Amino acid sequence: MTAVNFVIVGFGGMGSYHEKNLMPTEKEKINLIGVYDILEERQEVAHEKGLFTYESFEAVLADEKVDAVLIAVPNDLHKSMSIAALKAGKHVVCEKPATLNTAEFDEILAVAADTGNRFMVHQNRRWDPDFLMVRNLYQNKPIGSVFQIESRVNGANGIPGDWRHLKKHGGGMLLDWGIHLLDQILWLVDSPIKDVKVDFSYILGDEVDDGFTSFITFENGVKALVEVGTTNYVKLPRWYVKATEGTARIDDWDLSGEMVRAVQTANESMPQPIQAGVGLTKTMAPPSEDATEELALPEATAEYDTFYSNVYHVIRDGAQPIVKNTEVRNVLLLIEQMFEEDK
C-alpha cells in the first residue's frame, strides 16, 4: 500500500480540521507531508504542530513528492487554484462549494479530463449521524414511505468569519451551510426536481444572505423544506420527517428526538376531543394511547467508505468517488436557480 502524499493549502478552520480529525483516521492511506497558508500566523500554527510549511503555493506545485492537494481557501479562489494544481500534475480535493457557479465547475472538470488527474469535492455531511438516520428512514421505511422532509440548521451568531460576509468571495449562508443541506437532500431523494421556491433573509444588513428558507418538490412527490438561519434564538428540530405510517423528529446533532408509528386506523381507535383555546378539537387531539407506538430512532450507519479512504481508492485503484462530480454540479445548478429567483 502506497499512501497518497497530501499538502493542505489553506490552514484555517477547515484545513486544520482535516489535519486534526479526518486525515489521521486513514494514516496508512493518507500521508500529510506539508501545509501552505498565505497568512504567516497560520504558517506558524502549522509549524508548531510539527508540520512542514511551504513558502508559496508555487513551491507546493513544484514538489514532485506531492501527489494531491486539499484546497481549503475562500470560495472564490477554488477554481484558479484547483486548475493550477491539476495542470501541475496533482490530484485535488476541494472544499465546498467547489466553485461559485456551474460554468467555473465545468472549467475545472475540463482540465481534470485533459490532465487525467482526479478532482474531488469534500461533501463531509454525507457522513453526519443525523443524516444517516434520515437516510435509514427514507430507504428502509420503518414508518412507511417518506413524503415530507424538513431539514434545518439554526443559530443566533450571524454570518461566520470575515470573507463570508462578502459576495465577491462567495459569502452568504446558501453557499456556506446551504451547500451541505441541499447536497444531503438531493443525494437522499433520487428523483428530478419539479419545483423550487426560496425566500432569502437579509436581516443583518450584509450584501449576502444571512439565511434562507427553500421549498423543493420532487417529481416522485416528495417535498422538502430546507432552511438555514443565523438569527434564531430558539432552535427548531434539525430534522422533521413525515411518512405514511408515522413521524420522526431529530432535535440536534446529539441525536435526541423521537419516532412514532401508527398501529391502528383512526376508525378503530378514535381520538377524544380536547379543549383548544376557547374551543374544542378532535382533529388536533393527540391519538389514542393504543393507536400509536414509540420506536427507537433508526441506526446511524454508513454502508460506504470514509471520505479519505475513498479518496485513496479513487487515486490508487480507480474506484468511483462517493461524492460524484455530477452530483456536485446538480447542487450548484440548484443554487444558481435559487439565486436567480432572488433577483
Would you kindly provide a written description of the structure presented here, covering whatever features stand out?
- With 343 residues, the protein is of the alpha/beta class.
- It folds into two domains: 134 residues, NAD(P)-binding Rossmann-like Domain (Rossmann fold, 3-Layer(aba) Sandwich); 178 residues, Dihydrodipicolinate Reductase, domain 2.
- It contains nine helices and 15 strands.
- An eight-stranded mixed β-sheet has the order 7-8-9-6-10-11-12-15, with helices on one face. It has a five-stranded parallel β-sheet with strand order 2-1-3-4-5, sandwiched between helices. A two-stranded antiparallel sheet has the order 13-14.
- The mean pLDDT is 94.
Q: Numbering strands along the chain, what is their spatial order in the largest sheet?
A: 7-8-9-6-10-11-12-15
Strands, total number: 15
- Name of the CATH superfamily of the largest domain: Dihydrodipicolinate Reductase, domain 2
Which topology of the largest domain does CATH recognise? Dihydrodipicolinate Reductase, domain 2
Order of helices and strands: EHEHHEHEHEHEHEEEEEEEEEHH
Q: State the secondary-structure class.
A: alpha/beta
Helix content: 25-40%
The coarse overall form would be elongated
The number of domains is 2
CATH-derived architecture of the largest domain: 2-Layer Sandwich
* Poorly predicted runs: none
Look at the structure and give the CATH class of the largest domain. Answer: Alpha Beta
The end-to-end span amounts to 52 Å
- Gyration radius (Cα, Å) is 23 Å
Count of helix runs: 9
Mean pLDDT: 94
How much of the sequence lies in strands comes to: 15-25%
Main sheet overview: 8 strands, mixed
